[in-house]
Amino acid sequence: MTETIVEGSVEKLKLRRAIEAARAALPEDERHAASVQIRESLLDRPWVQMAGLVACYWSVGAEPATHGLVFALWKHGATVMLPVLRPDDDLDWAVYDGPDTLAPGRFGIMEPVDARRGVDAIRTAALVIVPALAVDRSTGVRLGRGGGSYDRALARVGPNVPTVALLHEGELLDGVPAEAHDRAVRYAASPSGIVRVGTGNPVE
Fold first, then answer.
1. Is 148 a known ligand-binding residue?
2. What is the pLDDT of residues 106-130, one digit of tens each?
3. Can you tell me the distance from the alpha carbon of 132 to that of 169, in angstroms, rounded to the nearest whole number?
4. Does the annotation place 150 within a ligand binding site?
5. Is residue 12 part of an annotated ligand binding site?
6. Strand residues in the chain grouped as ranges (E)
7. What's the CATH fold of domain 2-196?
8. pLDDT tens profile 4-14
9. What is the dihedral of CA 5, 10, 12, 16, to 10 degrees?
């Protein structure tokens, strides 16, 4: 078992480095266009439009940008929760109430200044949108940055709640190294559109 875990961790590290390098090489205009396409595809989905409480995140670096998506969901009337990173690397949640209600948190990541709702607040979300470096097309397992924060958060999400990982083009893969703690998502959203991944009954 130990050998399997170590091997999986090494393969993940290699894949993370490759994807992070590819993202860093993307021209800024290409990143922006990708983020707009993802945002518009999501906002066009009925199950996104009907979600009254959305758990999302504030993108950083070369991730597909979510700032416009968060703002649009909020303007359309949804309550949007953003994560607050705790000292134990689990995720607390607080409500976004416009761009002026954010402040730098741990590692400089922007977080709402609203009262914390606790780690279990994500259980009440009707839609969950998470970051990922890659997603396995057949299993839905996502590759994160290695901290396990979103795996813990996704473990609290109900089985019928749409969970979506945002990707750049080429990051929906035929295989992603997985370990026992890794959690799957139901959809992968990229500039090409939104793809149902893994198994189970689709939401749409």
1. yes
2. 888 899 998 899 999 999 999 999 9
3. 12
4. yes
5. yes
6. 53-55, 79-85, 91-96, 102-104, 110-112, 127-131, 134-136, 142-143, 163-166, 172-173, 187-190, 193-196
7. Rossmann fold (3.40.50)
8. 334 458 888 99
9. 160
